[in-house]
Amino acid sequence: MPGPVFPEVTSALCIFCILLVPLAGIGISVVNTGLCRSHSAAHAMLSSLCVFSVAVGVYFICGFAWQGYIGMAAHTISVAGKPWSLLAAGPFFLRHLDFDGSPSSLAAWLSMLGAGLAATIPLGSGAERWRLSASCASTALLAGCTYPLFAHWVWAGGWLAQLGANYGLGHGFVDAGGTSSIQVVGGVTALAIAWILGPRRGKYGPDGMPAAIPGHNAVLILLGCSLAYVGWLGLNTAGAILFAGVAPGRTVLVAMNTTLAAAAAGLAAALVTRLRFGRPDVSITANGWVGGLVASSAGCAFVAPAAIVLIGLIAGTLVAFSVEWLELRFGVDDPGGAISVHGVAGVWGLLAFGIFARFPGPVHNISGAAWIAAGDTGQWLAQLTGIATLLGFVLPLSYALNALLNAVWPYRLPPEGERQGLDLYELGAGAYPEFVTHTEEFTQH
């Protein structure tokens, strides 16, 4: 598919940034592994590798054909005399796509990695009880249906992106780095998986109170945060160029905002747990850090640094409380905190964009782009429309698809498999064969 070609410097910057993106997925995988018990650690890492492979394979077959990119052929409908794009109409297997550094080829590469990243998110909510084959089958639904569908609406000139031009809602729904199409889509899928699987054995006692089941390795959790941060720098930067049209020089702001959001969110989570429990909690602080990265992605190129600090502080606080609310009040067992980190913090990041975003305007001096609010009218409403679509359409769709698949391909391990741990039951060997692994000593039956 012929299309415009970036200047060589822009193309090289995008390529370098996209090369960093897999570190985000690796970081999430390592965090999930550290947060589960040692008898399922190898299974957690293998699941991440397998679902990533399935995601990129399915996306290669049909994902990009249905997502597309700005300017490519699409299925549209006319409402009130205006066209609304619903789904791309590209060929399968990336046929006719020129891999020449053009924006469309770079977008296909970044989006493929985004599908793999989104697929690792539900593994956190299904940890210690989700069969490997079932998680791979569920990933095929995510990478082949829900992810490319919503990504088209946001990144490829779909109807959410058209809200500005067609309906006068600011600049339309905007998401530079994938807060919605990657993070929240993964987060609502994680919620659907947690509902379908139910809590782990021993998580809730007869009185309905949850038991604490600590993760097995705090060092892995914190290492995963560091890897995720580097990957997010690439994800936000490449996304801002490809999907928000920012100039390469503006990527300095993107990197600055990504860093500030993560730092502020991590500190907020640490402070909240220190005030509530008397000491900082490693797992919640780590999840707060990643929640800040998630919240930063949508507006990383359009929010002033002072505002992104506030966004990060609120994201970290939300994650710290959301983990407890979901577990205690709603009975949702989410060992990796995926719903809070990618769903709750992601929704906040999308809403915050509508509140704090300012778009660069013309300048008449050498001081750089001026922050102006012109054209921002209705931006918060466009963001709310996107959030409503995620919660009111993508979540029910994801739940329905996975519930149907679960009916013919059971997702959950039998009780014996949970007792042994997934490493022994599904893989035949533990992650730490020379050491004693913890099984259910933290739970009561």
List the helices and strands and how they pair.
Elements: H1 8-20, H2 22-35, H3 41-67, E1 74-79, E2 82-88, H4 103-125, H5 132-155, H6 163-167, H7 179-197, H8 218-244, H9 251-277, H10 282-297, H11 305-328, H12 338-356, E3 359-361, E4 370-372, H13 379-408, H14 415-420, H15 422-427
Antiparallel strand pairs: 1-2, 3-4
Helix pairs in contact: 1-4, 1-8, 2-3, 2-4, 2-8, 3-4, 3-5, 4-5, 4-7, 4-8, 5-7, 5-13, 7-12, 7-13, 8-9, 8-10, 9-10, 9-11, 10-11, 10-12, 11-12, 12-13
Give a written overview of the molecule:
The protein is mainly α. The protein has one domain: Ammonium transporter AmtB like domains (Ammonium transporter fold). Helix content is 63%, strand content 4%. β3 (359-361) and β4 form a beta hairpin. α8 (218-244) packs antiparallel against α9 (251-277) and α9 packs across α11. The chain is globular and about 60 Å long. Mean pLDDT is 92; it is low at 362-375.
Structure at a glance:
The protein is mainly alpha-helical.
By DSSP (H or I, 4+ residues per run), the number of helices equals: 15
Question: How many independent structural domains?
Answer: 1
Tell me the overall shape. globular
User: Which fold name is given in CATH as the topology?
Assistant: Ammonium transporter fold
- In CATH terms, the superfamily is Ammonium transporter AmtB like domains
